[in-house]
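Lecture 7 notes: from sequence to structure.
We start with the chain below.
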Amino acid sequence: MNQNQDDRRRYISWIFLPTILAIVIQTAMAIMALEFYVVAGMSTYKDGDYTSFVVKVINNYTNGDGAALSSVAYAIVTTVVAFYIFKKIFREGRISGLANKSQSLPLTVAGVIMFSCGMNYVTLYLLNSLASAFPTWLEEYNNLLDAAGVGSTMTIPMTAYAIILGPICEELLFRGITFFAAKKVMPVHFAILVQAIMFGAFHMNKLQGIYAFVLGLGLGYIMHLYDSLFMTILIHIIFNFIGTIGSEYLPTGGDSLISFFLCMLSSLVVTYLSIICLRKGAANLNNDDIFTDI
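Predicted structure tokens for the same chain:
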């Protein structure tokens, strides 16, 4: 009994360590990239005071590829470290792929597409609702996106990070290490909730944190159904692709209060139906599934 308690206790720290590790690596990469810009700026800057020099360096860093490249470096380093930890501690040297995970490929594919599109609308309308209620949150969110180089004219490195590298890194951290560690010490429904909270908190921004939490709930449940990081990585990549590049091609609504409500309701219905498709398409549904009545 004591041995089991000790085994469970040692996994508690792994619920929080991935987030801390990611923040440390992210900060280190940003500092290293900024230091490079400082050194490069010192070699060419001749006129003006120290304040002007610092402003110029920061502008070059944020408006150029500096922020994007530091994000790419962070994602690569974190992915390698997280993959090693996940494989070594939580998978005992094995990584589960997509083979034999679906008993109905059409249902699974339909679920993936519907979830990616429906959740994009859910998070969009949620973001708009929160931004209307808390304008300062929107300003904070926009400033964060500008500092990260995310906008209408995204560079190739930032596009690669936002669509591919970021999702891979975050899925290994949260649907991988955090979720599996949480499952060791608590029921699966609490584990899904905890990893979603950590996923939202990691973004360190109120608006982004809230919709990341909502997305994390869905991805956590899908991870529970399919036991495959490849599955959640694929969905996360599609979700981010739609949100960054494909959003301008998707129809939007909600110009009036009634239409906004109807669009929000429709997106929730589509997302709910996607979960049903994914659940019915899963090959090995767990006996402790949290939605046994669906």
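Points to note: The chain has ten helices and no strands. Residues 2-281 form one domain.
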